[in-house]
Amino acid sequence: MGDQVIDAVRELLPVLRERAQDTEDARRVSDESIKAVRQTGFFKLLQPTRYGGLERHPNEFYRAVRAIAGACGSTGWVASVLGCHPWQLGLFDDRAQREVWGEDDDTLVSSSYAPMGRAKPVDDVRGRGFEFSGRWSFSSGCDHATWVFLGGLVLGEDGAPTDFRTFLLPRADYEIDDVWDTIGLRGTGSNDIIVEPVFVPEYRTLSFLDTGRCHGPGQEVNTGPLYKLPFASVFSCSIAVPVVGMATGAYDAYVTHTRERVRASTGGRAAEDSFNQVRIAEAACDIDAAMLQIERDLDEQMRHATAGEKIPFPLRVQTRRDQVNATSSAIAAVDRLFESAGGRALKVGTPIQRFWRDAHAGRVHAINDPEKALAMYGQAQLGLKVTDAWI
Length: 391
Fold this sequence. Notes:
By secondary structure, the protein is an alpha+beta fold. It has twelve helices and seven strands. Helix content is 49%, strand content 17%.
């Protein structure tokens, strides 16, 4: 079934490629494009089978993400972010899953995980839960979602944080502030979310302490190995792979451009320039190696999860290492191609410059920060304690 989804995604790519400039100009992915991606089955790849999902290997999901982002960077970014959320929702209490998917298993959830919210525990006639409020930025694709995951700190009576949780809220409980106006990933509609004080029942929250232990109440009903993977591995790869896809799109655009390009200064064909040929080979190696490392790591994680084994900590750190390395390799490939594409590649509307801007915009996401993740890997190799929650 996963192969059928990827085949359907590939058939859609020419349409997404044709809409890429319109997506950028509109500052959001169109409803038509989201509908078309949904019809391929893409958003069901990581969704529990109990709620109409396909519950496939994560590498099938990431191959589809790479393909979509290679046609349109913004569409690939939004698809990846919205597409990984069904996996996380599968970790929530089943009551929360029923609220989201009970009447419509095509329902989408957006997110902003930074701990910008503040939660005060309450226990009254509404039940046990939290009074929650805050403002968050960068909720990609929020216009297409009717629920949202938001990060927040639970405060004790003394005002000090006692927990860091993900809070799940329905559309009626938050406002969207249209502030997204950027030089890259312009079409992602990554607007702000505003929540005035609302009540969130405890079953619609999930502690990062639990996800760090690869645990969630949803595992009682979603027992497959997919839901035993670390959140930091699944989400971080969902932020890195679109950038690899953008590099793939830039590569394809560069090859096509170079085949047809004639240098104004010499009249020579750019395709016959050995330096261009070398750049193509180097970029292809960087892009392929980036994906191969991620796929290897997730294959190994799934092997442990399928065997009922705990995911080894060194493998979790390695996955974060390879995730940020994939982003860095993709950026290096895009830069190598863009800097020799010639002046005509700078024209607004050309795919090479758009992929260059989109890839660099994706790189600045906090989860793609290479120094932090690489330092964690080095700490682990040296026998030092790694305390970061994003492992």
